[in-house]
Amino acid sequence: MISIDKLAYTSQLRSSNPMEKFIFSIFTMVLCVLLNNIVYSVIITVFMGVVAIFKGKIPIRSYMELMLIPMVFLIIGVVTIAINVVGSSKDVLFSFTILNIKLGCTRESVEMSSKIFFKALAAVSCLYFLALSTPIFEVLMVLRRLKVPKLFVELMGLIYRFIFVLLDTANMIFISQNSRLGYSTIKASYNSLGKLISCLFISSYKRSQDIYTAMESRCYDGEINLIENSYKISYKNMLIMIIIEIIAICISFNKDIFGGII
To answer: What is its main location (predicted)?
Structure first.
């Protein structure tokens, strides 16, 4: 499995101010949702990928594997939006009948599903840009500076860490079962999977209690204090970000701005 933490720590963009990266990625993601423009979404998706790969030196294969994870769910969701009950609509592109119910795609449903797909993909690329260039503790540092409630920040950090604890525990149990031919047949696979889930719950709960005890022995009082690095605000980077956003918006709406010249 790809470790996002490892990629974030090895990224060439890690030394950049995390506040700037956070503002840029979140602001761009919000624009993707609000503008609802396919051209803008495509531009942002490509741009974020290019910056993460060529500027951040993230391996292309690792980045593509990460993008494939949400893309599978997006394709499934988009298909369910594109195909609906069409009845006697005249704008049907294609249709088929199941149990006397006429299903198909219309121009409107295809356009809507396309916008949702590219908009969601662009939003995911924005979050990947942040996650692959900024370690989680720096993201939490930014949230603290933005006056996000401490309880939310602490829960976010603990939940993020326990995800990897669960994955590590599940991986060890799976390797142990597989070495004993626990997945040699379908029946054995179901049996092993059930035992894996039950053992995972018990062992992860015990491990979380051990971690909490270790934290309390180190004077944990409900707040995790980390050493924060000091960063200078780069007005040059901020200006570049603003210019990029303006150019992307202008390109996506060039017909309205330039009267269809471009």
So the answer is: membrane
Q: Which two tokens stand for residue 61?
A: 């294969």
Copy the structure tokens of residue 165.
């604890």
Residues 159, 224 contacting (CB under 8 angstroms): no
Q: How confident is the model at residue 88 (pLDDT cuts 50, 70, 90)?
A: low
SS3 132: coil
For the chain, report the end-to-end CA distance as a whole number of angstroms.
Answer: 44
Phi, psi values for residue 95, rounded to 5°: -150, 165
Residues pairing with 84 in the sheet? 104
How many Å apart are CA 65 and CA 213, to the nearest integer?
37
Is pLDDT at 99 greater than 80 in this prediction? no
- Running DSSP on this structure, what letter comes out for residue 85? E
d(CA 105, CA 82): 6
User: Identity (one letter) of the amino acid at 218?
Assistant: R
Reading the block at residue 15, the tokens are: 């030394």
Residue 89's pLDDT is 62
State the DSSP H helix or E strand holding residue 95, giving kind and residue range, or none if neither. strand 92-98
- Both tokens of residue 77? 């969701």
**What global pTM score does this model have?**
0.79
Name the strand (E) or helix (H) holding 104: strand 101-106
Q: Torsion over CA of 218, 5, 51 and 112, rounded to 10 degrees?
A: -110
The token duo for 76 is 């499934």
Distance CA 167, CA 162 (A): 8
How does 151-175 read in b/e, with b if 16+ C-beta sit within 10 Å? eebeeebeeeeeeeeeeebbeebbe
H/E segment holding residue 208 = helix 186-217
**Cα torsion 173, 175, 179, 185: sign:** positive
